[in-house]
Amino acid sequence: SFPTRRSSDLHTYDNDYGNVISTIDYNQFETHGNTDPFEITVEKTMPDGLKNVVTKRWVANNKHAPQTAMYYCWEKTTGSAETMTFFSNNGKKLREVTFGLNGEPVYVDMFYDDVGNIVAESMPYIAGDDIQNVYYIYDKNNRLMEELHPDGLVKNYSYNKLQRTITTTSA
């Protein structure tokens, strides 16, 4: 392994694949990592001893997957519930799944237009619930112009050369 320094952190990489195997930050806290050569599974042990694992998997009959999902990332950190994030074949996030205190899955879905803008995102829901969405409207330059929330909240966006202005109104 060989150490390098980026900003104030000291990184040590494995010689075979160049993956980070440890990082010492500005406060001298050390994080250890273990990654397979294709970065399909990444394991990190934090300075406080918590362990985080992220792995990529094919959808293959996963009951939480939306229809157009190709693969997902499964993540688990010591002391926290697992999460799953599902992606399309072009890498767009389609669904996030978290698990409530009783272990029941909670979903958030994303929908896109033909150019890749997110046009709707569901509020968190449990299977069988009425699904409420936040809708996003764009101009011809693909700039976000309006957000429409299910509670009647509307966010309008306007642009000039130097800034974006957000105006919020309630129903």
Beta-strand share of residues: over 45%
Instruction: Kindly state the percentage of residues in helix.
Output: under 10%
Describe the global form: globular
Largest beta sheet: strand ordering: 1-2-3-4-5-6-7-8-9-10-11-12-13-14-15
Question: What pattern of helices and strands is seen along the backbone?
Answer: EEEEEEEEEEEEEEE
- What can be said about the biggest beta sheet? 15 strands, antiparallel
Number of strands: 15
Mean pLDDT: 90
Which stretches are poorly predicted, pLDDT < 50 over at least 5 residues? Answer: none
Q: What's the Cα radius of gyration?
A: 21 Å
SS element count, helices: 0
Pairing-aware structural class of the strands and helices? mainly beta
Question: Could you characterize the architecture of this molecule?
Answer:
The chain is an all-beta fold. 0% of the residues lie in helices and 52% in strands. The protein contains no helices and 15 strands. It has a 15-stranded antiparallel sheet, with no helix packed on it. The radius of gyration is 21 Å and the shape is globular. The protein starts with a strand and ends with a strand.
Features:
15 strands; 15-stranded antiparallel β-sheet; mainly beta; 0% helix; globular; 171 residues; single chain
Short description:
The chain has strands at residues 2-6, 9-13, 20-24, 30-35, 41-45, 51-58, 71-77, 83-87, 93-99, 105-112, 118-122, 133-138, 144-148, 154-159, 164-169. It is an all-beta fold and 171 residues long.
